[in-house]
Specification:
Blueprint: H1 2-33, H2 35-38, E1 42-45, E2 48-52, H3 89-103, H4 112-115, E3 125-127, H5 128-142, H6 146-156, E4 169-171, H7 172-180
Helix pairs in contact: 5-6, 6-7
Length: 184
């Protein structure tokens, strides 16, 4: 009987500690010191929320840089991949269709991250190679010089975290918002 009483006391203490005190401390810290991140790293343009730095969006206009494909159509409620394996004929059809579509608007072979969807379907970044691949199309459709776009890309390029984690990349939403602020 003594063990049961001790167990219930321990359950109560741990429930209060991990179910109330710890979450309250984390909530308080995040709202005081890292509020933007705690609220989803939302991006605003003229006081209007236009997206999140952390969630990819679909850009289809030729005057914008296009994001990495998404198997879930960029829906964060159902984050995930297509679960099609490397021998899947459906996956091959999707990849071939993407490559064909891209070849209609661009010269050369499309980079892998513009042809293959990410595992989460929400990747907000693309490689510098993918951005450079799209520069001629965007420059033509915007009436902006290629060198201006190359300079913009250089400014917005993100290095690997702590210099070792991840790859050099560019956030497509930030790039397209910066693109909108440039006057041709």
């Amino acid at each position: 009987m003594k063990s049961i009483i001790i167990s219930f006391k321990m359950l109560t203490v741990m429930s209060i500690l991990t179910g109330a005190i710890y979450p309250a401390l984390i909530w308080g810290y995040s709202n005081l010191f890292v509020q933007n991140k705690a609220l989803g790293s939302l991006v605003q343009k003229k006081s209007i929320i236009v997206g999140s730095e952390l969630i990819g969006q679909k850009f289809t206009k030729p005057s914008y840089f296009w994001s990495r494909p998404s198997a879930i159509d960029y829906n964060p409620a159902s984050s995930g991949a297509s679960n099609l394996g490397p021998t899947s004929s459906d996956l091959k059809k999707q990849v071939d269709a993407r490559a064909t579509f891209l070849s209609g608007s661009h010269a050369g072979v499309a980079p892998k991250d513009l042809i293959f969807a990410s595992a989460s379907g929400l990747d907000p970044h693309i490689s510098v190679e993918s951005v450079n691949y799209q520069i001629p199309r965007v420059a033509k459709n915007r009436g902006i010089s290629v060198s201006t776009l190359q300079h913009l890309v250089q400014e917005l390029t993100e290095k690997p975290q702590y210099g070792i984690f991840g790859e050099t990349r560019i956030n497509v939403l930030k790039l397209n918002l910066a693109l909108d602020s440039i006057s041709p």
